[in-house]
Design a protein that fits this description.
By secondary structure, the protein is α+β, with helices and mostly antiparallel strands. 38% of the residues lie in helices and 22% in strands. It has 2 domains: 2-67, no CATH class; 78-192, no CATH class. The protein has helices at residues 78-82, 92-111, 132-148, 167-201; strands spanning 2-6, 14-20, 23-24, 28-31, 34-39, 46-55, 58-67. The protein is globular, with a radius of gyration of 19 Å.
């Protein structure tokens, strides 16, 4: 099972007819603007939440996509372009996946005491157009993550501008996030190991 946490707005008093990945789910309010539900684990780590949010002014459709765990593509090749594969394109699913990775890294850094601020967007739709301001926001998020923690010597530089003009840039953007993900996983593994060792000696 997976705990899905959403933040629909502090004024929300109820979430009705909720579904996660098409399956009925029950969200309970844990604190201001924090609702959670236990749902079936998704293999790809993607959780699409739909339903109706209720506040004092009425109700409105709820649609939020969350990612737990990180799925990144760092090995696109010329063959993807030559064969016109899905990996040769950046669509709304890719952007939601990247935004989810940014969110995961930021939340885990914050939990470990590393202050970092991001502005994520997890509701990219098929008809949405990548604007320069949105790509600048994504770049700023990546820079904020890098500034909050460390990277390895082989981590690519953050591009001056995210244009997705080449498969190399697409790979490098995701490699930055992949490196941060691996480093944070290593840090958390050390925390878990230390905790178990201390408990075992008592």
């Amino acid at each position: 099972m997976q705990t899905v946490i959403i933040n629909p707005g502090a004024a929300v008093t109820a979430i009705r007819t909720a579904k996660v990945n098409g399956l009925t789910a029950t969200f309970s309010k844990k604190e201001a603007n924090v609702w959670q539900a236990q749902v079936k684990e998704a293999v790809n780590g993607r959780y699409e939440v739909t339903g109706t949010a209720v506040d004092s002014s009425g109700s409105w459709p709820l649609w939020i996509v969350k990612y737990y765990g990180v799925s990144l593509i760092t090995d696109r090749t010329q063959a993807d372009l030559d064969n016109d594969t899905a990996r040769a394109y950046i669509d709304h699913d890719d952007l939601n996946r990247l935004e989810g990775a940014v969110q995961w890294i930021a939340e885990h850094l914050q939990d470990a005491g590393y202050p970092v601020r991001i502005t994520e967007r997890l509701n990219w739709l098929p008809a949405d157009v990548r604007t320069q301001s949105e790509m600048d926001r994504l770049r700023d998020n990546i820079n904020n993550l890098r500034s909050a923690y460390v990277t390895v010597s082989t981590t690519p530089r953050t591009p001056a501008s995210i244009t997705y003009s080449s498969i190399n840039q697409a790979n490098e953007i995701e490699q930055i996030l992949a490196d941060l993900y691996q480093l944070i996983n290593g840090m958390e593994s050390q925390y878990r190991y230390s905790g178990e060792a201390i408990a075992g000696e008592e």
